[in-house]
Amino acid sequence: MSSAGGKIRAKNARNAEAHRRGQTKPRPAYAERAMTSKKPAVPAWAVGMVCFVVIGGVFFELARLFL
Fold this sequence. Notes:
Blueprint: H1 3-21, H2 30-36, H3 44-66
Family: Belongs to the RAMP4 family.
Subcellular location: Membrane; Endoplasmic reticulum membrane
Region (Disordered): 1-37
């Protein structure tokens, strides 16, 4: 048997024993972790780049239409 398998079994045994003693705390659900995250889902520079492209495209289309 590989040493990694033995290490995994030992760690599993420690975790199982801690769980039986009630020393583990549950990990919050992904939705709860995402709600408490201070980091926005989309970086500000990406939003700025999209706005720049859209507003610039509208500006050039209006210039092409009227000039």
